[in-house]
Amino acid sequence: MRTLSPAVKARYFRRQAADLIMSGLCIVAAIIGIIMLALILWMLFSKGLTGLSLDVFTKSMSSTGTGGGLANAIVGSLIQVGIGSMIGAPLGMMVGVYLSEVGKTSPFASVVRFVNDILLSAPSVLIGLFVYQIAVSPFGGFSGIAGALALALLAMPVVARTTEDILRLVPQAYRDGAIALGSRENEVVRKVILPAAFGGILTGILLAVARIAGETAPLIFTSLGNSNWSTDLTKPMASLPIAIYRYAGSPSADLVQLAWTGALLITVGVLLLNVVSRVSLAAVKRGQS
Amino acid sequence: MSEPAPQSARRPGLALQAPRTQSAITSPTRISLRQINAFYGPKQALFDVNLEIPDNAVTAFIGASGCGKSTLLRCLNRMNDTIPGARVEGQILMDGVDVNGAEIDPVSVRSRIGMVFQKPSPFPMSIYDNVAYGPRTHKLTKSKADLDELVERSLRRAALWEEAKDRLDKSGLGLSGGQQQRLCIARALAVSPAVILMDEPCSALDPVATAHIEQLIEDLRKHTCIVIVTHSMAQAARISQITAFFNMGQLIETAPTDQLFTAPKVEQTQDYITGRFG
């Protein structure tokens, strides 16, 4: 082996040192992130678990200041997130399919894509105020359906974006193959492209559901919150994020405890949704190969 | 292996008037190309191509990359319609009807002309569903039993039945590269096309799989008009009856394959097949 000149050696050590420092910084950053997450989860579980009882799921929120549960908030959240997703996800999928398969680079598609990106990054409180203007004040009151509408508006751009991204990953060969067999454009999309992208689109939808499940601001102006049990979509409706928002600053230790438990429920729900989506995606992928 | 090859090997005296070549010349014209000019936006890809493609024969397009041979192939089933800015002038007469005619639905053209691509690309669905895709799209069968039979027949014709019959419900992506390409051929055969276009169907395959496909092409051409684009001159010589040589968007020479490779009339062709080119 040839001996290295001092200049080369010095350069080599300099590079090694730089590598060591940068790797160290990356690891420190990762550890800080993980510690934060662990602390949040630890706090949630330690404070939330103690308040977990059957009452939380069976009793509605109390209007007297102490006691009660979260049953109406849990059901209200499920209803509003459910309806919001059922409106927002199909709309978003259709926008995504249009952008990727029909509009592509046309001027109109570019405008739609741009507007969708703005909607995607719009502050959620703005969406709440918008829905207040169109669905609350004209009808003379806060309602569950207005809350669901606000959540749908938040979910739609997320689903549109991920759908377009996923569809673009579908190999052009599938499109060519289907067209060469005499398929019309809509058949290509329905029978080949969408099934091929199913797993990815599903993940996008579940991510959107997870996102809107924790939204508070858009619900404050739309479904308002409700201390009583109500599943009437035309009346104010309770939800977990608003229950947490109301109770967290309460002077009553009981209610603060309930806020912690509610936060734990949302987190566990979103976590479960993520796990389910990953497992189902893996199953779909296994089926395809 | 194929019948004609050993025959001509045993009787070298007959090689010049090989039966393959003769049958190719006598079989009727399936596709006539008249003054084809093709453009991608402002760029012209084909110049005044005139060509007669016979039925029941393999016609090979050869030439360097970018010479226009794939463009011409994609004109035949109007696949270029799907590329923004692509434009074709001239007449492509299939059985006397212009496939670019105003009243012609491109879907009906493509359902009569099958296509096999360079990269084997089965749809991400079961082997059965891959083959049944075309028949289902065009509602060719009345019952499940009919469809089952059509799928089996297509897979047999593509020489894939024995390997696939026990795993019809498994994904087509689980097959080997050569099997996937035969699945794509079966998929094309299922709609009983009069013409099959192949765009370098073996370039992604190993020699054994290639031999399989070539044997299959030899069997299929007895009842079908086959047009194949290939980079391999040896392959063109092995499987085709007519060879067309393209250069820079122009059709330089068309001749019976034996003749083109042994006694080309144009110097450019001579240069290309002897490797003195570019």
Please explain how this structure is put together:
- The complex is a heterodimer of chains A (289) and B (278).
- Chain A is mainly alpha-helical and 289 residues long.
- Helix content of chain A is 77%, strand content 0%.
- Chain A has 11 helices and no strands.
- The longest helix of chain B has 14 residues.
- Chain B has one domain: Rossmann fold (3-Layer(aba) Sandwich).
- In chain B, α5 packs parallel to α8.
- In chain B, the strands form 2 sheets. Chain B has a 6-stranded mixed β-sheet with strand order 6-7-8-3-9-10, with helices on both faces. In chain B, strands 2-1-4-5 form a 4-stranded antiparallel β-sheet.
- Chain B contains 12 helices and 10 strands.
- The N terminus of chain B is likely disordered.
- Chain B has 278 residues and is α/β, with parallel strands linked by helices.
- At the A-B interface, α7 and α8 of A face α4, α5 and α8 of B.
Q: What descriptors fit this protein?
A:
heterodimer; A: 289 residues; mainly alpha; 2 domains; B: alpha/beta; Rossmann fold; 6-stranded mixed sheet; 4-stranded antiparallel sheet; 10 strands; 24% strand; globular; disordered N terminus
